[in-house]
User: Fold this.
Amino acid sequence: LHLDHATLEQLREWEQSLSEQYTAFQQAGLNLDLTRGKPGPDQLDLSNALDGILQNNYKSSAGVDVRNYGGIDGLAEAKALFASMINTKAEDVMVGGNSSLALMFFAVQSALYQGVNGSDTAWSKESNNIKFLAPVPGYDRHFSVCEQLGIQLIPVSMTDSGPDMDQVEERVKADPLIKGIWCVPRFSNPTGIVYSDDVVARMAKLPTLAGENFRIFWDNAYSVHVLEDNAPELASIMDDCRNEGTEDGVYIFGSTSKVTFAGAGVAFMASSPANIASLTKQMSFSTIGPDKINQLRHAIFLKDRESLKNHMAQHAAIIKPRFDTVLDLLNKELLDCGMATWVKPKGGYFISVDTLPGLAREVVKLCAAAGVKLTPAGATFPYGNDPDDSNIRLAPTFPNIEEIREAMAVFVNCVKLASVRQKQSTQ
Ligand SMILES: Cc1ncc(COP(=O)(O)O)c(C=O)c1O
Assistant:
């Protein structure tokens, strides 16, 4: 039954049976969690060979003793591996600690106070009202980096091929204090979409339209996290930027958090050699060098693009059935009833669901009261403010299939219950 075609009597009956089902869920004492965008233990097991892989050989290919201090920009073999992962050159890459988020925070903070190219270029010297564009829905931790550093976030809409570039271009042209934009270009968090070639090409031109010292924060966290064989490829923004002469205008980030170990992976950053020189100099004030032992272990374990692809196929074999469980239940229970929309992702870590306007908070609340934890409504928007109150991010990688099935049964019940009640209240 489609919500819009239900009579008052049908709505009343519907509400009653959904309420009964909901009460049964409440009484079942469930304790389920769909919030955690982290790998499951079986995924982590895929990389256990990292432990001991060096077999007491601590020399890098260039003869560096990786146990010692130094090598602020990373090992050559790690740079080569990560360059192949994001389609750029090894000399564009610096390899840091275990967290790309930490590199993003560092890059924003150093642009703000130390300057992207010397202290005269510090954003904070130009104004204390620096702004970033935030394509929404997006990744909450990107937004909190800016919130923490006093940078104002301006939401722009996402389309199914990336941020709405008309809006983006218009905004940066109109306001030179917009100094950055957050992008998750392949299997975006949370919608799973991949930026089209046209969007990437227009992004590469942005630094020519924006104010001085503008940077694109290209968080390619899910560059190799494919779930479907026919997943779209992402154009190389570095190639496009080089064609436009804007290679100083982009910072690319990535890590192996969801390739090997989320808490003990390797993170990296890529940009023009001039930017990498400036960033490694800034970095050298806070560390004498990163964990090169872990870099060497990763370079040996993941080896090259081909073996990385095979490794990611093993991840997909584990998590695709979990995604399919979520999608099957959404399709079975919520398709064609006018209560929710979602996109089937071809990679990444999330499924993004939009409820009817005004119901995301209510659905999250209902689920919580029935023992199913969801990411807080609004988390995918700056300041936690989803103006439509409709986006909910589901993360199916960590729970097992049975837990997902149970959690999704509650979720679809709560979406229906909230939608029917809303409809009743407007009749
Ligand atoms: C888009 C995106 N970027 C970055 C991260 C965190 O990366 P890292 O573990 O390298 O800090 C996540 C984790 O969920 C993410 O979704």
Q: What stands out?
A: The first helix runs from residue 8 to 27.
